[in-house]
Amino acid sequence: LYDELRSSEYYIRNYSIFPELVGGNARYTRTANVILQQSYEFRNDPQTTDLRNYYETAYNTIYGANVVLENVANITDATALQKNRMLADAYAIRALCHFDLVRVFAQAYNFTPDASHTGIVIKPRNTTVTDITGTRATVKQVYDLINNDLDTAIRLYRNSVPIYAIGDARTFLSEDAAKAIKARVALYQENWAEVIRLSSEVIATNRYTLVSSGNYAAAWRGKTIHPESIFELAFGNRIAESLGTFYNPTFAGTSGGYIAVATDLRNLFATNDVRGLSGTMFNAVRDGGTFTFTRKYQGINDTANNVKLYRASELWLSRAEAYAKQGNITAALSDLNRIRQRANPTAPAFTTTDATTLLNEIFDERRRELCFEGHIFFDIARNKRSISRPDCTGNNCTVNYPSPLFANPIPQY
Predict the structure, then answer these.
(1) Across the strands, what pairs with 387?
(2) What is the pTM of this model?
(3) Which of 286, 269, 291, 283 is nearest to 216 (CA)?
(4) For residue 373, how many other CB atoms are within 10 A of its CB?
């Protein structure tokens, strides 16, 4: 199951890059021979969608999770506590895959007041190996399954033991990781109290330390575990395409290195912000022009960085948003400024008494902090904002909300 998540169709490439391109954080340095161009131009259709292989990979992963869930009881060489960890991982991965799918192929949870709009096919059990079709559930039904699976996983993790002999614990799922996933789910559901509760529980463990500004850029280099990681996907000891391949302008050859930082994103960073050109971004020549690139995930082949899926800084910003939505401006500012001033210690604290102004700044801070980590398109959709991409070339560079284009078409079989 973990290996399926490491597929180039999933987190190692397509799923991770998709929200950055369509949401406006990323731009191409060239106009031909690029991945996800149909998605980028919002011209996917059910027959030719360039997300077909991602769709199949996600459902294959769900199928595998169901195989585990249906057969763990038959294992004779594991203890009850070991079986619980297998079950917990399978429930968490099934939830994660459904959550990722519904964000790509359906409108955001709050598109209708009761989330009764069309979602995706849910697979709480297997039918046949190849069956990834079926009747689409409502978005609420999808989220109900996700939450039930995560609640079950959390209970099982509490009554389990580790089962993996190699690898860092943070490259496997855990109770904290399941809570972090559920906190993100709650954010999309606008369940502010749940966001605050879950984020606070994970933050309070003190296991995920925010790195200093001086160490921020370095934390993204090499294969060491990021200090803030709650769950990151290990790239492993292999010679293969990595996520950083597409962001690295020094990559030898034409198959990578052509996804750069959008100009408006680059301009969001203050001069001393370590997440911008002061540390985590750099300028380089590629395809006949000078572009800005991210250092996140840099490295190729066996030097490639792990993919960071859930980090502590996201929880701080999600909790800030939840506090602001509840009207607790003081608490929201405290969480926001913790992340803002960590990245730029010379920056004055952000202050305001207006909730709308605060929420706009939190949105921008999420974009600065979480860029190239797979958030921006989904943040735009759930906040009912329009997409405007000044660097865009091709069709649909601006997509006004609401629009059917915010939900990708389901592949036809």
Answers:
(1) 399
(2) 0.97
(3) 269
(4) 21
